[in-house]
Amino acid sequence: MPYVNVPHHSQLHDPGGDKDASGAGNSEGLRIYYQLFGRGETKVLLIAGLACTLHVWKPQIVGLCGADVPNGSQDSKNLNGEFQEEKSSKVDQDVECGTDDDGNRQTGVQVCAFDNRGVGRSSVPTSKSEYTTTIMATDAKALLDHLGWKKVHICGHSMGGMIACKLAVMVPGRVASLALISVTGGGYECLPKMNYTSLSIAFRFIRAKSLQERALVDLDTHYTKDYLNAVVGKVERKTVLHKEYTNNLVISGMQPKYGFNGHAHACWMHCTSASEIKCIRSSRFPIVVVHGKGDVIAQIRHGRNLASRLSPLCQMVELPGGHLVTHENNIEANQVLVNLIQAGNYNIRHFESGNPLADMEIKAEPYMYHFYRRRKQISCFPSGCL
């Protein structure tokens, strides 16, 4: 299986340190599990959120590279554990990767998704000190180094967006674009809006013992009620998704207590400082913040605040949907990512909303934003405008 070895936090400060398995670590370090999908010059790194494995990115993996069968998979099982042949997608074929030394157009997307420390098939340290967004960004950097990726489009969801910000500060010269989905500024901003819905979810999460109970709580956390109650064919969508979520939990298992507590600790301790914001803005790669209007976990006002701090290089896109808006509105979310990737590949240095250049015809649409490269325009619209 594909793993990359990363040091324990204690080893970063004390390379000669050697602790037993019940402490912060041992001399062998930790292992981060990852999978590669698709092939091409454009590289995309997907960073999952709290308690989520790489399976959470299935709609984006399929949308960007057209396959959910990992590269080199001997049993050809997809992200649902089903057998399937690898194939390319129209999106994969259409994404331009720039030009080679001879000026020829290049296409193709390769995606890397991985399990953060503390979840899935990656190592699970037992000490909370091993879990911060900075440490987890160091894991992601080690993965990029392992893969030899020089330039990468980074996309993070929820806690993964916090990690993505830290990674962008660590390697700003290697970032082609940055997508932050359902993200907040960490700390008290991680607290959901106090109402009956959020309190009910929290209570049921604590009481959940079986995989089926945990799957039901995850559904109410990730999606809006209207989406879950909709009928697909002759079956309620919630029934279909519950089976899928339970199957994923069977494959990856319930997250260990140490892992969940560590992830929660990382979110609570997270903070993007003014100097880090300045570093990201000065790097001048295109950024987008995507948020679901019905998110019951990450309050949308915190996403707007982060986008404002990163402006004018950052655009805010609000889509109908819950915390997992990448699933609930996957077509719109994927289109946002494709346009952002194109913008990064074209090495755009300036883009902003509602400020059209004189030689461009711009349609006035709510939340519309534009990416500019000389005389070429790439437009991305929110739900309902695509």
Query: What is the chain-wise order of helices and strands?
Result: EHEEHHEEEHEHEHHHEEHHHEHEHHEE
Can you count the beta strands?
Answer: 14
Strand order of the largest sheet: 1-2-6-3-7-8-11-12
Structural class label: alpha/beta
Termini Cα gap = 39 Å
**What does the radius of gyration come to?**
20 Å
Number of helices: 14
Overall 3D form: globular
In terms of DSSP E residues, the strand content is 15-25%
Largest sheet: 8 strands, mixed
Mean pLDDT: 81
Low-confidence stretches: 13-27, 83-91, 97-106, 348-386
Which bin fits the share of residues in helices? 25-40%
Chain-wise SSE layout:
Elements: E1 3-6, H1 9-13, E2 30-37, E3 42-47, H2 58-65, H3 90-94, E4 96-99, E5 105-107, E6 109-114, H4 133-147, E7 152-157, H5 159-170, E8 175-181, H6 196-207, H7 211-222, H8 225-229, E9 231-232, E10 235-236, H9 237-252, H10 257-269, H11 274-283, E11 287-292, H12 300-310, E12 314-319, H13 325-328, H14 330-345, E13 369-373, E14 376-380
Parallel strand pairs: 3-6, 3-7, 7-8, 8-11, 11-12
Antiparallel strand pairs: 1-2, 2-6, 4-5, 9-10, 13-14
